[in-house]
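Throughout our pipeline, every protein is held as a single compact record rather than as scattered files. Such a record has a labelled line for the sequence and another for the backbone structure tokens. This encoding replaces a full spatial description with a residue-level series of whole-number codes. For reference, a complete record is included directly beneath this paragraph.
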Amino acid sequence: MLDSKIPKGSLNSKWEDYKGHCKLVNPANKRSLEVIVVGTGLAGASAAASLGELGYKVKAFCFQDSPRRAHSIAAQGGINAAKNYQNDGDSVFRLFYDTVKGGDYRAREANVHRLAEVSGNIIDQCVAQGVPFAREYGGLLSNRSFGGTQVQRTFYAAGQTGQQLLLGAYSALERQVALGNVKMYNRHEMLDIVKIDGKARGIIARNLINGELERHFGHAVLICSGGYGNVFFLSTNAMGSNVTAAWKATKNGAYFANPCFTQIHPTCIPVSGDHQSKLTLMSESLRNDGRIWVPKKQNDTRKAGDIPEEERDYYLERRYPAFGNLVPRDVASRAAKERCDAGYGVGTSKQAVFLDFAAAIERYGNIEVGKRQMSNVSKEEIIKLGKEVVAEKYGNLFDMYAKITGENPYETPMRIYPAVHYTMGGLWVDYELGTTVPGLYSLGEANFSDHGANRLGASALMQGLADGYFVIPYTVGNYLADEIRTKAIPTDHPAFVEAEKKVRDTINKFFAIKGTKSVDFYHKKLGKIMWDKCGMARNEQGLKEAIQEIKALRAEFWSNVRVPGEANEFNPELEKAGRVADFLELGELMCLDALNRRESCGGHFREESQTEDGEAKRDDENFSYVAAWEYKGEGQYELHKEPLVFEECKPTQRSYK
């Protein structure tokens, strides 16, 4: 039976009670305890900085040349917090409720409530670090809305919120590096977990510059390595993003939870051809002011500007009047797919819809006219003033779109289409963020805990920083308090030797194959199987086919992949080979999990389980649980179920109408 370690008592008091009763480590003992942090995005950087500041000896690892390169830097639109600055009815409870509902009642209440509780602290912490959040004219922090909410609680820094938050966490991390509390290992990739007497006691890492394998001891290991969206090959993730750290943890006994819960983001630049290696996100914040529409006539080839207002279908506003363009991402994505599949798509591929700012530009222009007390203003001047306001709010996003597509979004609507983005599944963790392996923790997108079957926009940054700054310092301390008598274990211990040999054998195996196909060849093939049969819509037949196709593809990969170069050198193809090998195993588990979950919820849409009007149809009686999968050997998994109990948010049919 999975023990989620949720404290007793009311939701409002669980976290305070936990902090008041957890074990502590005194400052002198912290100096002799070592913690390994794998990944230095928002979760990893904030955790390493916080633990270093507390006095622990921290080793932080990232495969990039700097923690500043972590994919957190690509987050655009904002970060949620229940500050209620707008006085529009927001509260900790409402943020908690919106998150549980947005996740389609497949998240753990206790973890989500804690997230909402500490959300306000995150903003205070980041402002103190100098994060340049947008401000109103009078100097107060500004807020905007995101999908799935009816209040304004999203703090932002233009369209580069992730970058600014990461620079804040990076600054805190580098301060601890300078003080000697954190040792930073750039260009290092974790390739295995080392377990001694059932506890995580270190990692094997590869120096990506010279290829050497290194052994590192830690009293505890924190996996903060992000999500696994690149299993689809084309996604909004950085091309280096991968599942390897979490998957090695899984193969060492950590359960993997809800792998089929992947999020398709509704506002991305559409695929333009087979040459692409990644997709580009257009921030959800654009849906604040942009209106999404398609022509009312099928296969309409006219330009957007030639289609009169009465011939446009603002389908989100039509189908979901209460939330309109700000419905959650899973709802918006499926609605776009439905319109395109029905023949109403736009652009040359017909796999796109319009995101139109014309009305917002005119509205903002009129507001400016009023503010400046101007009279007899021409339509052209109103539009010019409106464009200036939109440029101030979304300028870098508009510039990015123009550079990629060659089109001016101020003059013509953007074309967007859903794409793979965030992954809600990840390592199973308890309330303390501990996996099923003692001493092994998982933070941020690498774990499953806070988002259920669908992530609301602006909550990923919130979770990563909450876990790193405000949760793990207490929970890992509770574990390490019992480890103060454990001396640092020498890395010539047999467990380290065996783990390094296993990694080396795998590397040698790659070079021994001497096949004819590149790593990317197999990655693209896997991605097509996943997108076609485990993407925006899944069905039983397709998932069963996908499982068999992935098994065959994996066998072909291990017999015919070509990895050039040598092991003991800088070799990006070797790095990719290891990551794709893990994706080939994870992909099968994702399809298995999707096949097992015979319901539709959030981002997991089973075609056999939908309402009459095409909405997701949950089955709370049979599937109100976390699916935690235990690795039992290649292609072999045992399902463990953590029942989900809802005391405050009683599950209802999700409606945004």
